[in-house]
Model the fold of this input.
Amino acid sequence: MRIPLCSLLIIISGIAAAQKKFTISQGTIKFASKAQLELIQANSNQLQGIINPTSNQFAFLVNIKSFQGFNSGLQRQHFNENYMESEKFPVAKFSGKIIEQVNFTTDNTIEVRAKGELEIHGQKQIRIIKAKITVKGNQLAVEAHFLVPLSDHSITIPKIVSQKIATEIEVDINALLSQEP
Done:
C-alpha cells in the first residue's frame, strides 16, 4: 500500500513536533586566564540553555555577575566593572545551530560543531565551537572547551596589568539538559 506524499509529510512533521526541547537542569561555565604572572579562574553554576532536537538549534546564556571564585573580591569587582562592564552588558550568549545531525532518541555520544553567534561584552562574533554531546535516555550531557580572544570582544587590558591577564581566555562548559515533560 502506498502512502501519498502529502500524508507522509504530515506524519513526519507530527513525529518531529512530538520531540520536546532539552533545557539545562544543571550547568557550569568556567573560565581561566593563564597569564605570565597570574592565574585567574572563576565559574558560574547559573548557565541557562536550550536545544531544539527538531531543528538542531540551540541557545545558551550566562549572567556575567554570577561568576564566583576569583583570587579576591577586588579582582571580581574589576572583572565586572572595568573589563566586562556587566552593568552595561549583563549577559554572554551563544546561539545558533549544531552542524552535524544528532540522533536525540538513541543513547550515543557524538562530537559536534556548533555554529553560531557568540556575544560577549556587547560584541558579536560568528564562531564554530566543538562540543561533545552524550544522549542517555531523556537527558543530554554537553561538554565544550574553547578559547575566547579578548580583542574579538573589545575587552582591553591596561598595559600595567598586561602580564596578569591573558589575551585569550579558556572556557569550559559542562551542562546536563533534560527533555521537557
